[in-house]
Design brief:
three-stranded antiparallel beta sheet; 2 helices
Length: 106
């Protein structure tokens, strides 16, 4: 039984390290969405990013390049993937912690 617990502890440590990596990647990739504001009849584009309870608007220009939009879509896909993986890892960590403490949820 000691060998199995050793493997479970090792897997728990690995899962926590991977989760930290995903969380660090999420912080490095701020996300946000494009907002179009019309001011005095002219269109301006901003990147809206939540900072705590406030929303910050970062000016991006009158016209957005296709490269910028493609990069934004790529970042959104990555953020979703990271968030989904963190949810899975949280479940796995919870299961491993229960297993190490002798509680099995079947």
């Amino acid at each position: 039984m000691g060998m199995i617990k050793g493997v479970l502890r090792e897997e728990l440590e690995n899962s926590k390290k991977i989760k930290q990596g995903y969380e660090k990647a999420l912080k490095a990739n701020p996300g946000g969405c494009i907002v179009k504001k019309i001011i005095k009849g002219h269109s301006y584009y901003y990147l809206a990013i939540r900072d705590g309870k406030k929303v910050k608007f970062i000016y991006k220009g009158k016209v957005l390049s296709k490269d910028f939009l493609a990069e934004l879509k790529k970042q959104k896909r990555l953020r979703k993937k990271y968030k989904d993986n963190i949810v899975k890892l949280n479940k796995q960590i919870k299961f491993l912690e229960k297993s190490l403490h002798g509680k099995e949820d079947v």
